[in-house]
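Record 1-acyl-sn-glycerol-3-phosphate acyltransferase, 266 aa.
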Amino acid sequence: MRYARLGLHLLWGALTVAAVYRFLNDDARLWLKQRWSQQLLDILAIHLDANLHGVPHGSLIVANHISWLDIFVLNAIRPMAFVSKSEVRDWPLAGWLAANTDTLFLRRGCRADAIDINARIETLLAAGKDVAVFPEGTTTDGSHLQPFHGALLQPAIDSKRPVQPLALAYFDRSGRRSIAPAYAGETTMAECMAEIIASRSLYVRLRPTPPIVAGTLTRREVAVMARSAVAYHLSLLAETEDSSAEDIYSFCSRSLSPSVKSSTLF
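=>
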């Protein structure tokens, strides 16, 4: 039954995008993206625990990356534009939907493409629109973080917009971390979907860390700070090669409110 509902939901999304999406204003488009994403999570019995209250619009959202679901989790709480690897464009139906709903596709290793994408990100940020990037450049099972790459953080530095790290994690009904949604390694989309549906219900928690205002920082420094902040919230060891890692952790600790620091973050 859940597979049937999912198929109908994807079909409804495709028809909506094809028939009316391009004729709507920005507010209506954002509402549709949010509503569709919320319904997708509901169909998959994924419960969302997130609060982005206080995160300024026009932020560069920087999150750890676990699953193809991450995009819809973010859109369900606050719709935004995304930067995705160019291979996603070739996915059946999902790639077409992404291409027609404010996704920017980046060809890895192509310098000219990166320059163009950064210019488009800066334009969106300057217009007060949120843009999300996954600076690990790949997915993990959520048990660790890959290094954060700084190339796509440059537009926030140039436009003096905040970089907003977000910590994302999935849990099962008993409160233990779940790898069911992980679309990593050799896992196929079909296998990932089967694991999600077999789980019957999942919980996803999304927590903002203190925003980073780049100022005179380099993009590499911002990337290391963002990764350390996310690791702090996820209670993961930030394995950074930067010699200032201890100072970065100190920054994260000072920036968090006492009530947050004294609680269990996840």
